[in-house]
Design a protein that fits this description.
By secondary structure, the protein is an alpha/beta fold. The chain folds into 2 domains: 2-390, no CATH class; 393-540, Rossmann fold. The chain contains 24 helices and 7 strands. The strands form 2 sheets. A 5-stranded mixed β-sheet has the order 4-3-5-7-6, sandwiched between helices. A hairpin with a 2-residue loop joins β1 (302-303) and β2. α1 (2-9) packs antiparallel against α2 (20-42).
């Protein structure tokens, strides 16, 4: 099937030009292939309850839209993220009913559409072989794979950006405006890509006199202003949000965490180094990077007396400008340095190295195959360094651990007053997140560090059970563990902390562990307290 599609989409193998209807049918078939493959690979994950930011913001926001048609969420703190993806989820629930299965299927539809856009973009700048290899590597790359079925906005913004870049390369300016406008309505940071293209075209206009290969074709130079137009829809959304909430950049805590606290002259270069690692080495990418760098030392392969062509220099420069802009921007904003924020440009890095391997290495498919094996392994094997649980299937371990502990809590302590931290506080108070059948009364702390447990000890009359869990993944033998300066920098700038273990939490609060389970470096526990002891402690308070 893949070979047939390749022959149909390769201009060199088509004997006659395809009609628009025929070409649309071929692309729909390719979309169906991507969607079927994603559904098959994600089948064990489709009914999982919601995870972390899904539960904390995106699903509550979409649910508010679904129930009350409110673009500004009512059941969670509003932030500045535009509502495009939430509208998509609300529409899916209206059509098929509210469930995690419908949610994840709706996101997989978007993921398949994103892969189709990426395939077409790569084919437009390179060839069908590179397009297949780049698309397949992207689809199984752990960060992209896990985001495919999670109800978050980054993958949707990335997919729409791929389509916009395709329109830019093919010189369809109004399609470019449309796709970039939808991208910024999926996530406001998608404005980085059109702004980068606009800035690069200004620079290329100056450099083009000396290095003509850097400049886009003449037909594009008068259309640079199209890259500015996606500012309009995101500005309208910001204005609407301000009119409704009184806040221009989300609620004050969102603004502090994602912008005010990140513009530090020391933090920005540190974050930039982390961003470079995320596009060059994270989860097996280092294999592709090393192979690509070594391949650069080799001459191009020759087919029928002709050297294999490179991606046009102006296209490399334009896509490189988008990559650089994302690296710089995402180093300056965003309290959490999450890899998913770079989804719009990660496939561009994969494209660059795959195209290099295709051009310069005879058996390039073997290298791509080896990288694919490393990517698949990264889905199941946690690396020896800290990472976000949503970047591989560790997020499934988290959900399973919490769902089982929640069932224990429901059966053993159905009327408990529970001490816990976010996001478990939402899991226990919102049954529609699919963890519990009815809500618990919850006392919330920030995490399970020593200072927070000390604060909890002064509120023991407010709870009789503690639901504790690992809020950060910590490898058994982490890299750079002995580098005290790096540990301090992580704590200062990147929210790193160490949770106390369940035994220590139970000792400090005077409770008994009644449930404890560990899985692949994560743990969860339920600690029960003597009700009489809690009441006596409350009576002794002045």
């Amino acid at each position: 099937m893949a070979g047939w599609v390749t022959r149909q989409l390769n201009p060199k193998t088509r004997s006659t030009p395809s009609s628009a209807r025929s070409l649309a049918a071929q692309y729909f078939l390719l979309f169906a292939i991507f969607f079927a493959g994603l559904m098959l690979l994600h089948a064990p994950l489709l009914r999982l309850p919601y995870f972390w930011d899904e539960a904390g913001y995106y699903v509550p926001s979409a649910r508010d839209l679904y129930l009350s048609r409110a673009l500004i969420p009512q059941t969670t703190l509003a932030n500045i993220h535009p509502p495009f993806v939430m509208c998509w989820l609300a529409l899916a629930w209206h059509v098929a009913g509210y469930s995690t299965l419908v949610t994840r299927t709706a996101m997989l539809i978007f993921a398949a559409f994103s892969l189709l856009g990426l395939f077409r973009l790569v084919r437009a700048v390179s060839n069908v072989q590179v397009a297949w290899a780049t698309t397949l590597l992207t689809a199984i790359y752990p960060v992209f794979f896990t985001q495919c079925s999670l109800a978050q906005v980054d993958l949707a913004a990335a997919g729409l950006t791929f389509w916009a870049l395709l329109a830019y390369v093919e010189d369809h300016p109004w399609k470019q405006v449309m796709w970039f406008s939808l991208a910024v309505l999926a996530k406001e940071t998608a404005i980085v890509a059109p702004m980068a293209l606009f800035a690069w075209e200004l620079v290329a206009g100056v450099l083009g006199a000396r290095w003509p290969e850097l400049a886009p074709p003449q037909s594009r130079r008068s259309r640079a202003f199209h890259s500015l137009l996606p500012v309009v829809p995101v500005a309208i959304w910001f204005g609407f949000h301000y009119a409704k909430t009184g806040f221009l950049f989300g609620n004050p805590e969102f603004f502090r965490y994602n912008l005010a606290s990140t513009l530090n002259p020391l933090r920005i270069p540190l974050a930039f180094m982390l961003r470079l690692w995320q596009v060059a080495g994270y989860f097996g990418l280092y294999l592709l990077t090393v192979a690509g760098v070594l391949a650069m030392r080799r001459p191009p392969q020759v087919d029928n007396g002709v050297a294999r062509p490179r991606i046009a220099i102006w296209q490399q420069a334009a896509l490189g400008a988008v990559l650089l802009a994302y690296l710089l921007f995402m180093s300056a904003v965003g309290g959490a340095v999450l890899a998913r924020y770079l989804l719009p440009v990660l496939p561009l890095v994969i494209l660059a190295w795959v195209a290099t391997l295709w051009r310069r290495v005879r058996y390039w498919e073997l290298i791509v195959g080896a990288v694919a094996v490393a990517f698949v392994a990264g889905l199941f094997i946690n690396p020896p360094y800290g990472f976000s649980l949503e970047d591989n299937l560790a997020y499934r371990d988290y959900i399973v651990l919490h769902a089982e502990a929640d069932r224990f809590l429901t059966m053993r302590y159905p009327d408990a007053r529970v001490l816990t931290a976010w996001p478990a506080s939402d899991e226990l108070t919102r049954p529609w997140l699919a963890y519990v059948a009815r809500p618990f009364q919850v006392t919330r702390i920030e995490d399970f560090t020593s200072p927070q447990i000390a604060l909890a000890s002064f509120a023991q009359g407010q709870f009789n059970v503690a639901f504790v869990f690992s809020t950060k993944y910590r490898p058994a033998h982490p890299l750079l563990e002995g580098w005290a300066a790096w540990q301090r920098l992580k704590e200062r700038f990147f929210g790193y902390h160490r949770d106390l273990l369940p035994e220590e939490i139970a000792r400090r609060l005077g409770g008994k562990i009644v449930y404890h389970k560990e899985q692949n470096g994560q743990w969860v526990a339920v600690i029960a307290f003597d009700e009489d002891k809690d009441q006596n402690a409350e009576l002794r308070r002045p």
